[in-house]
């Protein structure tokens, strides 16, 4: 009889051991997938969790593991920035006005927890900052004149193999040496300096400065005359791409592909870039440059007329749509649309934000 009871005691002891180790499993394998505001709250759970979350190696892992867009930085011309959280309990920043930067700034670009800002002073210098940790870095003055509204894109792609938070700034600007030409200047945090590319795009085109986006080592901008300008960071080459609906389409990164989201009538369409070389193929070829992926939304789901609606972000499985002062989230997988209980000024510029704790 005693022997018959021993297996039950052994199993019970084993289950007890597994249960006691659950806190370690969460600490080592789950915390890094949470946004910054939640992590700071969880520091009070126990001493081990506080030490884990406070370590530089954890910040490095979290910047690689957590990529969800949970908020927007918005800014109206002439006013300080503000932060709009999709979930105020889990995502937030301690200083949404960015007062920790030593001078007033204008937000230009966002990438995986980092912001690129331009000073509002006459000097027009660039800052890179993390609004969660309130760390900032003033960049050296660029070699070229980027203009009052620079077409600049911040590229920060965290890697587990690279402990340093290396980033790049890419700016397309009108050439000072050639009429109707566009040049490119790149800042590398690894080199700590600006470099003007040897590539020059000779085309009578004007960029939409706020449209820039990065997808797999290529930066894209909408053109006011229609189409898209691409600059390959690896090949150091530019290319003009026929686009959908010209400058009206919002560029985004959906499943690792460049996409253009545009209103057509009272419906919103998403087209993904399928083949940039389709215009060089035979006329009988059925290969298309752009493929329609979804008829994602009808304007009746929004609270206003389609003329008042614009897509301010397209990425992953999510679209963020502004209709007058209201914000809507649309899930591309479930096709569900929901209104958020946040308001924004109609003329504000909005940038997607990842709540990360990366150190710069």
Automatic annotation (TrEMBL):
<protein>
    <submittedName>
        <fullName>F-box protein At5g07610</fullName>
    </submittedName>
</protein>
<dbReference type="InterPro" id="IPR050796">
    <property type="entry name" value="SCF_F-box_component"/>
</dbReference>
<dbReference type="InterPro" id="IPR036047">
    <property type="entry name" value="F-box-like_dom_sf"/>
</dbReference>
<dbReference type="InterPro" id="IPR001810">
    <property type="entry name" value="F-box_dom"/>
</dbReference>
<feature type="domain" description="F-box">
    <location>
        <begin position="27"/>
        <end position="57"/>
    </location>
</feature>
<feature type="domain" description="F-box protein At3g26010-like beta-propeller">
    <location>
        <begin position="107"/>
        <end position="282"/>
    </location>
</feature>
<dbReference type="InterPro" id="IPR056592">
    <property type="entry name" value="Beta-prop_At3g26010-like"/>
</dbReference>
<dbReference type="Pfam" id="PF24750">
    <property type="entry name" value="b-prop_At3g26010-like"/>
</dbReference>
<dbReference type="InterPro" id="IPR017451">
    <property type="entry name" value="F-box-assoc_interact_dom"/>
</dbReference>
<dbReference type="Pfam" id="PF00646">
    <property type="entry name" value="F-box"/>
</dbReference>
């Amino acid at each position: 009889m005693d022997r018959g009871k021993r297996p039950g005691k052994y199993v019970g002891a084993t289950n007890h051991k597994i249960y006691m180790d659950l806190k370690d499993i969460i600490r080592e394998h789950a915390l890094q997938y949470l946004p910054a505001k939640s992590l700071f709250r969880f520091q009070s759970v126990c001493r081990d969790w506080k030490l884990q979350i406070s370590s530089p190696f954890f910040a490095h892992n979290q910047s690689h593991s957590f990529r969800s867009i949970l908020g927007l930085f918005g800014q109206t011309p002439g006013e300080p920035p503000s932060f709009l959280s999709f979930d105020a309990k889990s995502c937030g920043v301690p200083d949404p006005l960015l007062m920790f930067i030593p001078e007033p700034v204008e937000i230009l670009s966002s990438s995986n927890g980092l912001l690129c800002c331009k000073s509002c002073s006459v000097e027009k210098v660039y800052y890179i900052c993390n609004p969660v940790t309130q760390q900032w870095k003033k960049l050296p003055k660029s070699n070229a004149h980027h203009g009052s509204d620079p077409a600049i894109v911040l590229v920060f792609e965290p890697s587990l193999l690279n402990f340093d938070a290396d980033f790049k700034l890419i700016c397309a600007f009108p050439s000072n040496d050639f009429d109707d030409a566009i040049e490119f200047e790149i800042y590398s945090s690894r080199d700590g300096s600006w470099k003007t590319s040897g590539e020059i795009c000779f085309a009578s085109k004007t960029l939409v400065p706020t449209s820039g986006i990065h997808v797999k080592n290529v930066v894209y901008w909408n053109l006011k005359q229609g189409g898209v300008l691409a600059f390959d960071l690896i090949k150091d080459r530019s290319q003009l791409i026929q686009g959908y609906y010209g400058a009206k389409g919002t560029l985004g990164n959906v499943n690792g592909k460049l996409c253009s989201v545009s209103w057509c009538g009272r419906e919103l369409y998403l087209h993904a870039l399928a083949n940039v070389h389709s215009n060089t193929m035979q006329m009988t070829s059925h290969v298309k440059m752009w493929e329609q992926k979804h008829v994602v939304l009808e304007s009746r789901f929004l609270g206003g007329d389609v003329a008042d609606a614009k897509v301010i972000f397209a990425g992953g499985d999510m679209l963020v749509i502004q209709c007058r002062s209201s914000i809507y989230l649309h899930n591309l997988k479930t096709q569900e649309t929901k209104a958020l209980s946040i308001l924004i000024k109609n003329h504000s510029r909005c940038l997607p934000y990842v709540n990360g704790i990366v150190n710069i």
